[in-house]
Write a structure and sequence with these properties.
two-stranded antiparallel ribbon; alpha+beta; 19% strand
């Protein structure tokens, strides 16, 4: 029977063309829109993770509770021992890297050595010297350079390009960092500014400076200490798995804390956080999921409505055929089921075409992206200048399922009129 239905659909354009076009366009739009929205959201997650939080973060709880003050005295000691423990006990997919968050007063001298300008800055110590390319590649520092070069030796610094403009910094110029050391003393050190970078986040471009991890440890007297251990996961790991990975490692951390490193102080209490636990990302993630559900419902309703009208028009066109089939003894239920099978065949063809078109659009957005320029700079949110889509199985699922469901619902609504046809009416129509 299905073979005859397929042949009938293929030979009658009025039954195939319009429903197929509606389903194809609907599925294409759904996959493209959801892929682009998911790409923007995951781009924001990845940007936040790379620049700030990591996908996972091991940090001392006293430091985390006061991190807006950058309390270096609450940093975690035993850097080497902690690195070994993280490497041995965490998932092999996670890449761990140490960082130091610091705050200081940046003083810019004139040609006479007197203060020309100064401002408070926040900074980060991380591996940026040659031979430690993972952080350089992760942050995209080479492509983010506006002027100058990357650090090549000790006591060289990268500054945000807006910070450089406000302080009138010069490439190869010297600045002095004045701050508080780990033990509460006064810390002062000179750095050579070798490059200006554009992070694409206004707050960071105005106040951020990057130095090598070893230099930060020297300047702030933090030998074998870091404020953060950031863990990075590959893009193929779904965001829904972050909490499970965190929970698995947290259970091992609890056991380790029973025999902690000797260099930890008594009230050190390291905690594990995922990117969703920080910077209000969990609320943004929930909003994203809600928007996705609303879009699916709206598209399903609109496609069902259009296909319902198409089914009604198709029913008028096939009025005689339906009457004859009922008069020959086919039951109302059998006729409705055959119409629904037809709609599923047409919907499947439309979903296939829509998946190919939508997948092609999302792939283009994923590889090339859309350059939004400075549109999001003033928001302070960690968006990349280039918005990209993301191809995911869930994107195709949320496009195909509504496409099939809308076709069936539309046919079901239009086919309800079949039950209004009585046998007496059918014979009168045939006699006429």
């Amino acid at each position: 029977m299905i073979r005859w239905l397929i042949l009938g659909v293929a030979r009658d354009r009025t039954r195939l063309l319009f429903p197929w076009l509606v389903t194809t366009v609907g599925v294409t739009l759904m996959i493209t829109l959801l892929g682009f929205i998911e790409g923007i959201f995951m781009g924001m997650v990845d940007m936040t993770a790379k620049l700030d939080t990591g996908h996972l973060r091991l940090v001392n709880k006293p430091f985390y509770e006061e991190e807006h003050l950058n309390p270096l005295d609450r940093a975690l000691a035993a850097e080497k021992e902690t690195k070994n423990w993280l490497t041995q006990n965490s998932d092999s997919k996670i890449q761990w890297t140490p960082r130091i968050r610091w705050a200081a007063l940046m003083d810019v001298p004139d040609e006479n050595g007197e203060t020309r300008s100064q401002t408070p800055v926040t900074g980060m110590g991380l591996d940026v010297l040659p031979g430690n390319s993972s952080e350089i590649n992760r942050l995209g520092l080479e492509s983010s350079l506006v002027n100058g070069r990357l650090p090549e030796r000790s006591h060289e610094m990268l500054a945000g390009y807006l910070l450089a403009e406000s302080l009138d910094l010069e490439i190869d110029g010297t600045v002095t960092l004045l701050g508080q050391s780990f033990d509460g003393g006064f810390a002062a050190d000179n750095y050579r500014v070798v490059g200006f970078v554009k992070f694409g986040v206004a707050a960071m471009d105005k106040k951020m400076a990057l130095v090598d991890l070893g230099d930060a440890q020297t300047t702030f007297y933090m030998e074998d200490m870091v404020t953060d251990w950031l863990g990075f996961l590959p893009p193929k790991v779904p965001i829904f798995d972050y909490d499970k990975i965190k929970s698995d490692l947290q259970s091992k951390l609890t056991k380790w804390m029973q025999t902690p490193p000797g260099d930890w102080v008594e009230d050190d209490f390291p905690i594990l956080l995922s990117v969703l636990d920080q910077r209000n990302m969990d609320q943004i993630f929930r909003t994203f999921l809600m928007v996705r559900k609303v879009l699916v419902v709206i598209f399903t309703f609109i496609m069902s409505l259009v296909l319902w009208n198409a089914g009604l028009l198709n029913g008028i066109h096939r009025y005689g055929e339906i009457g004859l089939r009922l008069a020959l003894g086919e039951t109302h239920g059998q006729l409705l089921r055959s119409l629904m099978i037809e709609s599923l065949i047409i919907a499947a063809l439309g979903c296939l075409a829509g998946s190919l078109l939508g997948g092609a659009f999302v792939y283009y957005l994923q590889e090339v992206g859309v350059n939004m320029g400075d549109a999001f700079v003033q928001t302070g949110m960690m968006f990349s200048d280039v918005m990209r889509g993301r191809l995911t199985p869930s994107g195709f699922l949320y496009g195909i399922v509504p496409g099939l469901a809308a076709s069936v619902l539309g046919t079901l609504a239009a086919g309800a009129a079949i039950y209004k046809r009585s046998t007496a009416e059918l014979f009168r129509e045939l006699e006429a």
